[in-house]
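Handout, section 3.2

Students often ask what a structure token actually looks like in practice. Rather than define it abstractly, here is a full record for FUSC family protein. The first block is the sequence as you would receive it.
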Amino acid sequence: MKKVFIVLGFITAILATILAVTPLSNLAIIPIIVAFLCGLMILFISKKQNTKTKTIQYIFLLVIISLALTIYKGVFNTTELGDTEQLEQRAEENLEDSKEILEDLEIDEDL
């Protein structure tokens, strides 16, 4: 049972670290929670069996790094909104261009 939690903890901790680095850092919260809970379960199992493992420290280290990166990105990354009029104008121009392209296409009806 302990090995299952170790493997699950490492996989979710690594996944959380990878997600924390990408622009999808908000999705890293779920693997962080799962890895943390797996680390706690390993800790309780190790205390009952009186064994010491380094894996708990590695899992918690990855969880802390992932959590720090996620919080940093959440606080310091701001989304910039552009001028909505320019975006609407570009959308209209793209629509007009698309209509022109479709009108210029010659379709063979002999097929």
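Discussion prompt for tutorial groups: The chain has a mean pLDDT of 85. How would you have guessed this from the sequence alone?
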